[in-house]
Amino acid sequence: VRAWLRRNRWGLVGLPVAAALMIGANGQRLGGFWWHDEQHYASAKADQGEWLSYSDDFEDTVGHGEHKLRFRVTEIEKVDSYTDEFGHTTTITNPSYEAWRVHIEAKADPDSVLIDCRLALTEDDGTRYTFAQDADNIRQDVLYPCLPVDRWGPSSVDVRDGVRQPSGLEDGPRPATWSIEPLIFVATGAKITGVRLWWERSPHYAQVSVRPE
Amino acid sequence: MRWLVRGGLAVALIGALALGRWIDQAWPTDRMAVASYERTGGVGDRVATRWADLRVEGVTASTRLANTQAVVSTSGVWLVLDVTLWAQKQDLSVVEWRVVDAEGRTFVTDARTGYSLGTATPKVPWHVRVAFELPTGDLVGTTLRVSPRALDERREDVAVIDLGVDDDHAAELETLTDLVPIRASSSLEQPPLPGEPGYDDVFKDES
Q1: CB neighbours (10 Å) of residue B191?
Q2: What is the pLDDT of residues A158-190, one digit of tens each?
Q3: Cα–Cα distance list, B121 to A39, A77, A116 (Å)
């Protein structure tokens, strides 16, 4: 037996390695169906009022890029109406919902691609209420909850001559600093403790702990 | 001694192969690895899945539906279900509704009926009215299957709800012809059904 062990020692050492490689090589579904399909960890954390930096890699037709910005949540407040850019006010009467206004200040390099950012309010039990432009008969003039209303900066979709073109309701580059106050609808009675920012298909996110009044 | 060891090894090897074959037959990978997790219940039960809780509130039928655009008729039967849905953990904007008849045939719904899910907010009761076009004589033993991805139930939680339609109930449903109003799903109640208080007011504004 000892002779057999000695003769086959490298084979025996190799067995667990081969098994691990075999399992790993079949693990692509873990990436596709699980890791990139859900959010797993906060890669940036801060308390209300503190600045934090968040970045996330992506690939588009131009090549490698980064969603990169600095931001802070200065305040979140419960509101009972929404006034649009034309001064028309809609009162929120549906008893199923509460609306929260999130005050965000942000800075980013004007070349950073930030379109398609997502913003949510979170509860401690893991429930996530994602920003939507339309909710409960209200259409906000905010389209992207982390960007200036009218100048969104470079777009991965609008690419000319290998350059991502600035996009938005108005021409021109995105300012270096801005603030925005999107409204997020949550279930009545929800205990909001966090504000979360991310881009789709990313396993990580930025999380801000908040203390609602 | 040496031959005994070799013989034993051979037997062990054949045994291991036989065991592997047995496992493969008992749990075939082509079926088991993609099987969905069925959460079952009946009408009135709150069926919990990973992505939402669902409760079928009522089953009715008609030959005509009225959405905000048009009246949609059928020569068969519109099977109409009122469902309350509570999205879990995150917003829900894609749900595949299917009715499976006693023979295993599948019927899907479409936007032509006036059905639309919108985006269901977590924990907010979401009132859904969904209609399926079935041939006459096919209602007995129908089941509702709901999954959170279009036509893909692999490895996913699926709600399977027995609609409890027996011979008498089916015969009764197939006599119904009053207009059934359908609105896009929301946190607001769906309009009243024929025979319910307020039904006559539903079409007043539109005529």
Answers
A1: 17
A2: 899 989 999 999 888 999 999 999 999 999 999
A3: 18, 19, 20
According to DSSP, the residues that pair with A67 across neighbouring strands are: A56
CA distance B174 to B176: 6
Task: Give the Cβ contact number of residue B102 at 10 Å.
Answer: 12
Q: Chain B: residue nearest A132 by CA?
A: B119
Q: Do A97 and B125 touch (CB under 8 A)?
A: no
Q: Which of B36, B47, B37 is nearest to B162 (CA)?
A: B47
In this structure, what token pair is assigned to residue A96?
């199923």
How far is Cα B66 from Cα B194, in angstroms, rounded to an integer?
Answer: 12
Q: What are phi and psi of B26, to 5 degrees?
A: -70, -40
- Phi–psi pair at B34, nearest 5 degrees: -110, 5
Contacts of B91 in chain A (CB under 8 A): 128-130, 132
For residue A184, give the chain B residue with the closest CA.
B121
Segments in chain A forming alpha helices (H) = 2-7, 9-25, 28-29
What's A173's DSSP letter? P
Q: Which of A97, A126, A128 sits opposite B187 (nearest CB)?
A: A97
pLDDT in tens, A73-90: 999 999 999 998 889 999
Helix/strand/coil (H/E/C) assignment for every residue in chain B: CHHHHHHHHHHHHHHHHHHHHHHHHHCCHHHHCCCCEEEEEECCCEEECCCEEEEEEEEEEEEEEECCCCEEEEEEEEEEEEEEEEECCCCECCCEEEEECCCCCEEECCHHHCCCCCCECECCCEEEEEEEEECCCCCCCCEEEEECCCCCCCCCEEEEEECCCCHHHHHHHCCCCCCEECCCCECCCCCCCCCCCCHHHHCCCCC
Q: Express each pLDDT in A105-147 by its tens digit.
A: 999 999 999 999 999 999 999 999 999 998 878 899 999 999 9
Nearest to B75 by CA among B88, B64, B60: B64
Q: Which residues pair with B120 in a beta bridge?
A: B92
| Cα–Cα distance for residue pair A12/A155, rounded to 1 Å | 54
Considering only the beta carbons, identify the residue of B119, B155, B187 that sits closest to A94: B187
pLDDT tens readout for residues B110-137: 889 999 999 999 999 999 999 999 999 9
List the single residue in A with minimal CA-CA distance to B86: A187
Spacing of C-alpha B152 from chain mean position: 13
Print the SS3 string covering A135-169.
ECCEECCCCCCCCCCCEEEEEEEEEECCEEEEEEC
pTM of structure: 0.84
